[in-house]
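Hello again,

I reread your note about wanting to compare the complex against the isolated chains. To keep things tidy I'm splitting this into two emails, and this first one only covers the full assembly. Below are the input lines as submitted, including protein chains and any nucleic acid or small-molecule components. They are followed by the predicted structure of everything together. The single-chain runs will come separately.
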Amino acid sequence: MEFKRVLGRRRSFHYFATWRPVEREKIQAMLEAARRASRAVNTPFFKAVVTYRDRLSQEERNQFKTAWEPTVFDFAPVSIFWYHDTEARVAYVDRLKRPGVPSGALQDNAVMAPLLGWSRRFLSEVILPELLAPGGRSAPPARGGNSDAAMAMEQALLCAYDEGLAATLVPFDEDGARTVLGVPEVWEPLLAMLVGYPAESWEAGGQAPGLPFEDVFFAGSMDTAFERDPQVVARLQSEELIQEQAPIAWRKHEIRGLDRMFRLPASR
Amino acid sequence: MSVPFHLLDRPITEYIGVKLWLEEYGQFWGIPPSMIDQELSSSLLILERFCAFVGKDPDQIAGECLRPSKVGEGVMLRTKARREYIGLIADFERKEGSRASGSAVRSFFIHNGVAMTPSALR
Amino acid sequence: MEFKEVVGWRRSIRFFAPWRPVEREKVQAILEAVYRAPKVLELDIVRCVVIYRDALTAEQLESIRSPINSAQIDMAPVYIQFFADLQAAERAMDGGHLKELIDLDLLPASFGWTHDYVDRVIVPQVYKRILTDSNRVVVGRRPPLLQEVEEQAQARAGGGRTVVAVEAEPATLPLSLLVLANTAVGIAQAHALLSAFDEGLGAHLCGISPVVMKQLCRIPDYWHTGASTMLLGYHAGSWEDGGQRPREPFEEDFFEGRYGTPFVQDPGVVGRLKAERMIQDEAPLAWRRGELSALADMLGLPK
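Full-complex prediction:
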């Protein structure tokens, strides 16, 4: 699918086709997309565990839930739990066979070149000993999220749409998930990605409104808004990045129908 | 033509830092050891002129930018010295009126482990 | 461009054509892609400042350079700096935006979304907990006071005064808020990076001092940046840029069902993704050093 259409199609979906399994190959495609995301010093800060709703008991699924949209864990056929591996950098230094800066792979592959100030000696005799020094290697793992791990997660999410799937990000309970998934303590939770074929329309009520564009984007400094050129907006509408915004006239009818189909409590 | 320079008490290719430069340069760019002197002949002359410009030999220059690591093996960058040399290289480049002169000297520093980049040409 | 091809062509591009400006409409298209990124917990937290290299004074440009990024800074005509507005969670405490989404039928009542649920559960149990997380983490130190800077300058100039380092108070944030901020920024950066390549540009996330970027962008204290700056421009070299970067074995990253059970990579899927150009030839490419040598000559960079 065209890139901009993928971005435009993304929404927070709720109603997944509970009866339709997701092909494993599509999940793999999402994970492959995550692996191709940008990452500092070529370190994989992300980790993910793929679970299948039908292989988990209701009790296990309940352990994932928080106050934020708990029901969707019962709808989506696949839940992928994304984590930030707080020991990723340590592991990368310890295991020099990995293709990161410490191993020299980026230098050998001419990604980090003398043109940009990098050399084998800088790597092996300046950078590496510093990383291996007690303060460098044994520094305690840092929690606090990681934008690189989030980037990988987002590339997987967008790939879901490219594969004809819908996906939604929700928080999950750290302790409950650790009990069910057995992940290491040093993994810090990011978000759960719920994946499936949508039971609702691709419009899913339309694109959500947000802050005005000019309150989010600035030129030069935050004193000057980045003015939105309507011609660019028109181009992006034709490329389907910008789509019809909520409310959509028939959405209430769609929700009523979906609630009847899933025997959910009646809508307002 | 080599510039007479009293601080160089032996041919420039006999300094440890220069040997390292030639070896590392050859390795990265795939130039056999037998051809590296020829490949970098003009760069070696430029480095000699830079040595005259700052009044130090190649090993003194590299030594000022790197010091033995306090922990374990390896070396540590002296960032203040590196900044000073970045400025001196820029001065030298202006004096010679040639970016190639600056690039040759920077290559010596980089392959000795002193990471640096100049501004890019526009 | 097809989505998978965009993912496949993305590299950390470090060589830009310094003489070729980026059209404003392409910058806007990138921002529009960020605008459509998912909002974690429906919080509008990400902010971006677009900086045009040629609009900076020589002093400003020098302030963002470091010994190992000068060339990249000089080559890229545009920088996009990402921030997280930490007051976004506080502003959401009235639940107003969530109630708007409920009223627009985007958050269905059958999934528990009501105004009452927002007031009674989401605001106190989700938003408030983030803001009041007693687990705080250090996110930097406050910048030196002007007086300290002047003293250091005098000492450097040989003024003879001894500079005593003042133990600055570390700046801290609630851990949950920092996780939220970094996650939101990362999601936005994924959209921005991919969109750049879709627009025919190259991009790279480059480490520039957050303190300097905060000053340059004149942002308030409650905007946080720990994020790299996105450098943007037209490729100076090939789109291959040496090939896709090598990765660790797939099975080290992903697990199926439970940690300890690797998600085994199916080579058939890899084959499909190669055909769709998401997986491309991996570095090193045989001709890379020839290209680098040519780039060095063209851009005046050392070999």
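For quick reference: DSSP finds six helices and two strands in chain B.

B.
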